[in-house]
Design goal:
By secondary structure, the protein is of the alpha/beta class. Helix content is 29%, strand content 27%. It has eight helices and 14 strands.
Amino acid sequence: MEALSLPLGALRTNAYLVWSDPDRAVLIDPGDEAEKILAWVEEAGVGLEAVLLTHAHFDHVGAVGEVVNAYDVPVYLHPDALPVYRRAATSAARWGFGIPQPPEEPLVMLAEGELALGPGFEVLHLPGHCPGHVGFYNPAAGAIFSGDVLFAGGVGRWDIPSANRELLASSIRKLFSLPPQTVVYPGHGGPTSLAVEAASNPYVREWLAASS
């Protein structure tokens, strides 16, 4: 599996371009700066098969419309995230940002389980930071694209609308049922691993200890 990352926008949200077959790449979380994303995909020399969204917060969906217009690909989103997706431009404005409202066509609803796109993923439902939040796990590569559930040294915020601390803690415990050596590609910041976070992340340590 090949994975490239590109931090975008004022919040430095990571977009990921992922593939095994270069003719079947997927773009995860195209959050902002569409022109930069389109040039990045072109430079990588891959064929884009789909857009995958870990969740629908505005900083993860701001460039969806322009990517869809350029490549005519479907956008995969968990159904529980649809209300947040529909409010994306309004939510951005409340925080002082401006994004184009992402399109509802061609949305495809995600379900937990296998997803035969790009290099292939297991979709894990990981709510708490945002309704319908998912992670994209590739067992063969030992890697997960975790969105905003887990970061190096931190976890997703639960003090924002539609977030829930108890659900987030449950999702962290679910995430840490994966092998410890799993590499984590988060929505913000650099990569880490479950082993590193289990040993050093204070939120993870607290929530895993509470379940033991």
